[in-house]
Amino acid sequence: MKKIIEAGSKWSNVVAKGKAVRFTALEDGANISLLLYNAKNTTDRYNMPDSLKAQHTSKFTKGNILMTDNGRAMASIIEDSSGWHDPIGGYSTRAGTDSRYGETTFQKLLNDYYRSGEENFVKELMRHGLTKRDLVPNINLFSKIYADEAGSMHFDPEHAKAGDTVTLRLEMDSLMIISNTPNPQDPAADFPSVPVKMEVFDVNEADEHDYCVNYHPENRRAFENTWEYHSLLL
Prior knowledge:
This is DUF1989 domain-containing protein. The chain is α+β, with helices and mostly antiparallel strands. Helices cover 20% and strands 27% of the residues.
């Protein structure tokens, strides 16, 4: 499957274990906000604090895995050209979008109004029987947020370049929800959203020698939890 996620748009579907999803930025300044839920049990979903704590990191890149609430490996980053993806910046809101870029509404501008990540996420969650209560911290692909020596956080506006790619391998059947909306930490004065290409294809599943399995000791434990989980399914 190949699809262009246009600026401001959203997408959701279940992506099966053993599939990979490659995102390619088609212009500078891309940001894809992403949520993941176990398709067979949506109460088990991507857990940002555990994923960061277990891997001793505040960014994601090749080798990192996304862990669930139950300590399972949900998805792995198997390829990455940019070297940094943001797990801490959050998603944009209606109030924040209006405040930063000016108030816009569908009634006045139809599909040209500025969408927020929160609105896009909630609409797609509802398609799958979930609600706003199921929102959790998201991942912002292609964005870089770092802290200086004083502890202040900074958004790097030069990080995301046209042609950058990142590939996620699904380690379990997962509901993937995507919003192509700005990182709320992006200081740009104009609504900074650009098209991103998404490709889904088959890939070899992880084994004992896999790069992501061995990237960090806690990664192996998470994969072992996932392998045990699958071994007990009918």
